[in-house]
Design brief:
Strand content: 5-15%
Helix content: 25-40%
Distance between the termini: 165 Å
Strand order of the largest sheet: 2-1-3-4
Largest sheet: 4 strands, mixed
Radius of gyration: 46 Å
Length: 240
């Protein structure tokens, strides 16, 4: 017979915590889950004494270099006999669009003042080119070129800056006031057809044949005597 159930000894099973997992070949999981400490911001390093000494030394070198080589200044050029007017060298050709636009803008600004303006178009008379090169002393020119009261002012950029700042009005107000009406003789073109050679730039002389007319330019044109400061005089001695 089997023993009664009550007499059977009971076995009490207790749950025991498993031993912590440890292995020398793996990292500790707990240490991986922990947040890493944030690095403390480093305080900015103060410049060393040597760096402080180098800064003023570099400034002194820069100043001495600037004093030894000063920036180029605008040349002081004066035009004799033009103290009562504005002289403008420009071109009416549209070959170079930028140059044409700048010349037109400067002419528009200067024509806004009721003062005498001597406009010298290099495309109409090549003698203006030689004249301007002799005045400025250089062969490479940038148009337009403006003289006010015989003083060299500059080109389009200088005129635009002076006009915006109001300094251009102060320079021009010393000039005499004139009527800016269109010339009845040339229609504002400032040039006339040479009546000696009829614009051919050639004249016929007996026993000599055809000779070059020295009264007009290569285009057969002469400056209008009313628009130009220099009067037009035609003589036989001017024929070569």
């Amino acid at each position: 017979m089997w023993a009664p159930w009550s007499s059977t000894p009971r076995r009490i099973h207790t749950k025991s915590n498993p031993p912590p997992f440890s292995c020398s070949s793996f990292k500790d999981i707990q240490s991986l889950c922990e947040e890493e400490p944030k690095p403390q911001p480093e305080s900015p390093k103060s410049p060393s004494i040597f760096h402080r000494a180098r800064v003023p030394t570099s400034l002194l070198r820069t100043r001495s270099h600037r004093n030894a080589y000063p920036p180029p200044s605008k040349p002081s050029i004066t035009l004799p006999g033009a103290d009562q007017r504005i002289i403008l060298y420009f071109t009416s050709l549209r070959v170079v669009r930028k140059t044409f636009e700048e010349c037109r803008a400067v002419r528009s600004i200067l024509r806004g003042f009721r003062v005498p303006i001597d406009e010298r178009d290099l495309s109409m008379d090549c003698q203006f080119l030689d004249e301007l090169q002799g005045i400025l002393g250089c062969n490479k020119l940038t148009l337009p070129v403006v003289f006010i009261a015989g003083r060299y002012i500059g080109g389009a950029e200088e005129i635009r800056q002076l006009h915006e700042s109001g300094e251009l009005k102060n320079l021009i107000e010393r000039l005499p006031v004139v009527d800016r009406s269109v010339c009845d003789l040339c229609g504002g073109l400032r040039f006339l057809l040479c009546d000696l050679c009829d614009g051919s730039h050639k004249v016929y002389i007996e026993k000599m044949g055809f000779k070059t007319c020295s009264v007009c330019n290569v285009n057969g044109l002469i400056r209008c005597p009313y628009c130009s400061s220099a009067p037009y005089r035609r003589t036989k001695s001017m024929i070569k």
